[in-house]
Sequence to fold (895 residues):
Amino acid sequence: MWSAPLTVYQYVLLVYFSGLNLLYALFCCVGLRALVIVFAREFSQGSLRDLLERDVYKPVSILVPAYDEEVSIVGSVRSLLALQFPEFEVIVVSDGSTDETMARLVDAFALAEQPWASRQDLPTAPVRRTFRSLTHPNLVVVDKENGGKADALNAGLNLARYPLFAAVDADSMLDAEAILRATRLFVEDETLVAVGGTIRPLNGAVVRDGRVTELAMPKRWIERFQILEYARAFFTGRAGWSHFKSLLIISGAFGLFRRTAVLEAGGFLVGTVSEDMELVVRLHKHFLRKGQPYNIRFTPDPICWTEVPTDLKTLRRQRNRWHRGLCETLWKHRDMLFNPRYGRLGMVAVPYFWFFEALSPLVEVSGYLIVGVGAFTGFVSPRFAILFVLLAVMYGMLLSQLAAGVETFLSTRYPRMRDRIVLLVAAFIEFVGYRQFLVFERTLATVQVPFKKGQWGKMRRQGATAIATPDPGQAVTAPRP
Amino acid sequence: MWRRYGDAIYTLVTFAVFGFETLALGALSISFLLGRTTGIASTPVEGVLLATLTSTASALALLGFFLLGYHFTSTLRDRWHVEQLDAWTERWIGLALEDTPAEQIADGSMPRRLPRAAVDAVLSLLEVVKGEEGDRLKAVLARHGVDRLLLRHLRSGHLTARLDAIESLGKARLPQAFDALLGLLEHPKPVVRRMAVRAAAGTLATMTPEPGPEGPGGRFTAALKGASLKSGVAQESLLLLETRAGAVLRDLLAEPDLGDRLRWVALETTGRLGLADMAGEVAASTTHPDPELRAAAFRALHRLGSVPEDTHASLLDALRDEVDFVRVQACHAAAFLPAEVALPALEPGLGDDSWWVRRAAASSMARLGDDGVAAVTRAAETHPDQAAREMAVQILLEAGVLDPAGARLVKGVA
Fold:
């Protein structure tokens, strides 16, 4: 009785599996060609120097939302203030922090409270006090009541003076030239409204004076697996979607936006755990509805470093949050699904995210069940089942290697041959336990979406850089890759 | 940021992997579909699955070996290249500083075909070395046929080779490549146009000026007008012209039929370059029907730091323009009017609906000497609009007239 439906479902699974893998491989090809090869040449050091010397850049407001970041906030702000960019302001928004975040900032940067004539472009939780640094005139700190990350970003936006703003997590570290490289794209394209950069795991790296000076493979396998995950997400997925002008996610850890465009779209949405993706989807929607030309891009060059979870508990919470955020955003904008009004976004990108991202844990779990039960009952030959699982593992490895391969072309790469071999091995081991663990958590998150709307959950801090410099950037609230 | 060698091979490898996967998964899906009637565990399906597995394993092995091999060789190559670069840079510096005319430089010890490190080293030097020393290096490059090689690569069918050649010519600034670079402004690929216009502008900046439409400046202007370039790119190229920019900008602004986009670019660039003697040409756009151009003209006048007398009336009108960003730029430019004219005209701006206009008005007033500071201080204490009072205090704080403690004591703001 079950034989026919099971056969059909198996066929669906195979098509799903084939489609997903081919899409990833295609993204890797186009991403590599469109981004790396062209970027390496167009954005040479000379062209960046020209940008600075000829005064063509656009000034940037860097918004840093912070909640209980006493451990890392001073280091992060120092590293931002040391960026190689001629005109920028850093606006730190303490979102009702209950620890010593504000006190540390006041001491470290000689903050003086002063009245502030800010705009009220976006409604936010009340701002208690505004400070300006007496030692760094381009540093402004806002102390406001707790309203969540999106609310803090909106408060920062109300104060931002410059045409572009970067949203940067308080526990992340930017490459010295990150802002410069990202702003170049805005000079070249006036329709550009947002740019996302590459996020790379900081774990195991040597950090000096707020800068990554050397990379080394972290000790724990859980961190190594995440290196592969980030490489896959940024060097294949984002690059590919960006090439097809359908990028739906810009990581909350580092994105550069045109201020007026974000204000026009209504700012960051409060009450979601995925304010980064939600904003990008809303920007697409806003400009497509208006029929106004626009562009949202990923660029591999501006690199932001972040420390990824080092224990399973934190990783679980993080992935649970990410997956709920994805589902929340897709559900909120469900009118875009297969809606030709939104072009390739509505017909390809949004369906992809529904079927290959949001629902993928359910499909994967059912796949494991069918292959297992089928092999057990004799409906599928055990030999077939083993071969199929092996094939799935190999495809996963192939994608990991394709993505990790892009990383070898970066000048800041894992320098030791041993590390490269470890990455090869990690790509294999990842599929034995780690992947299933995450699939289980994401399945759980899919079920929890209606009950845990907007809940972030607590993240534990570890600190996993190789050399503890004064401010290694220790948080583990790593952004979505 | 990126290693530039091996990427083309890697692209081929990824395409090969993609090909492997497409064929294997396609075959698997079809055989699965065909085998549906007879049961999926039938031998043909398993056979195809096994073949798919084998091809995937081969792809994985190919990729793995490539990556390990690339990692190993690139580490060695990087080290060797840095050593070679240092050695060649020293050699080139020696040649540049020799006290002999360019055509008599003794470079007999150099190989006939210069190695890549030698070319890279001299191109990096040419980015910073100009004048007579630069000309000597260019002469040696030409003698070794590097210019011809780069020009040949400029016509290459491979995008990477073409982009590399454009970048090298942009560094070398060889006059003989100028027209070839201008020709690329019509290329269908935007990235080629962008890089070519930057390289051409940099080259023009070092060429001997020749007046008239047939001169290099005239040819550049004509190419720019015909090219499909984004405003930011056109602006950057004009800024790269350095001392040659004035003539090109004057030509552009004098053109009555110039498109609005390029006129906007010309106004912005004139302002950024601070070409004060062009205030008259800029002022002509302050009454343009397009608000973007009016705003650009006022922004340029603000940057030039002067407002021609015959523009005072249009500037005062613009302070009441219906478009807020025009009012903002007019407020900024008004800082260069005589205080007795500007202050009464700017004061209403403090109560403007737009935060940006309030800020621009207060900031310009504060720049108008003691009378301006006094007017802003008065506004901070007595202006009927709280938003105006707050803005006045903020500007006084930023100007250092008030300190944070004092600001909190200002009536009506604390």
Observations:
- Residues 461-477 of chain A have pLDDT under 50 and may be disordered.
